[in-house]
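Hello, quick one for you while I still have it in my head. A protein chain has come my way and I'm curious about its shape. Can you walk me through what the tokens say about the fold? No rush at all, and the record is pasted right below.
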Amino acid sequence: MSKRAPAEHPIHDLVAERWSPVVFSEEPLTPQQIRTLFEGARWAASSYNEQPWVYIVGVKGTDGAWRGLLDCLMEANQAWAQHAPVLALAVASTRYARNDKPNKHAWYDVGQASASLALQAASMGLYVHQMGGFDPDKARERFAIPDDHEPIAAMAIGHLGDAAAADQGLAKRDAAPRARKGIDEFVFGADWGSFPDSLR
């Protein structure tokens, strides 16, 4: 299934082709594929190059991490994420290692790393669905996440599944058209809320 973004301006193919399905194939990923995905995250930009991200990763059928991550998801997300061969949890280190001061940019940086991972996945014909629908307290307890780290988002990773064989409610979600705000709704100039005249 192709869900190329109906972009209004030219964008890179990887950006146009990246989207977040809910129908995943149970086809496993190789350890090399998984390492490459997180290598993509590794090279994201971050404040002071702190790289304040940790990813808890579970591979289906290999250890307890996958089941633990699935159990941390909200029930509605478990219904479809159970088919993904890889689950992960992005965690932010909330203090700078360089001076132990609060890192107010950590969430932004973790988002950049996860976006880089998602684009790396797109380049490999893989898909990432990031989720806010998980229980951070359960994740903290299950994975002994330290107090100075904050669970940010869960993700399911894998190959696109067969919509014809999937739950039809999920297949319908994946078939829905993609839509986004226009850039004139979030790119402002000197006046808040106004698209810059220089870009018209």
About this structure: The two ends are 34 Å apart (CA to CA).
